[in-house]
Design brief:
Keywords: Cell membrane, Membrane, Transmembrane, Transmembrane helix. The protein has helices spanning 4-43, 52-77, 84-101, 106-129. The chain is mostly helical.
Length: 135
């Protein structure tokens, strides 16, 4: 009885959090549609070979939005639990996109490659040491 109001507050908080996640998902979906439209316009250009870097960057942006939508889906499917794996995948994708932007600066490219190595190493260590759950 003493902690009953805590449960009510937690219930309201969860309700607001779920509504905000739905709204964020709708906004991200809108941005995904916009980026797919931009990608389609870019693909309609006759000389695509001259715009390879921009095209690759646009494709990676679309992948980032797919990853964010996947995180939103996972939030609801796994009862408000989001795996660390997804954040590491998004980090690697974002850094690869940044490498496309800074490909002419050797030092920045080397640092971004080191960051990718660090994220992949963290992913391997995380998978090795995480507890194994039996179904």
């Amino acid at each position: 009885m003493k902690h009953e109001w805590h449960q009510k507050v937690a219930g309201y908080y969860e309700y607001v959090l779920n509504i905000m996640m739905i709204l964020i998902g709708i906004v991200i979906f809108g941005f995904l549609i916009r980026e797919i439209w931009n990608l389609a316009q870019m693909l309609s250009i006759k000389n695509i070979s001259g715009h390879f870097t921009e095209l690759a960057e646009q494709i990676l942006i679309v992948f980032l939005f797919f990853e964010f939508l996947g995180i939103g889906r996972e939030y609801f499917v796994k009862d408000a639990h989001i795996s660390t794996d997804n954040f590491l995948y998004i980090g690697v994708t974002a850094i690869v996109r940044a490498m496309l932007v800074y490909h002419d600066q050797t030092y920045k490219t080397l640092m971004l490659a080191a960051a990718i190595f660090l994220l992949i190493s963290a992913q391997a260590i995380y998978r090795y040491f995480r507890p194994k759950y039996r179904s």
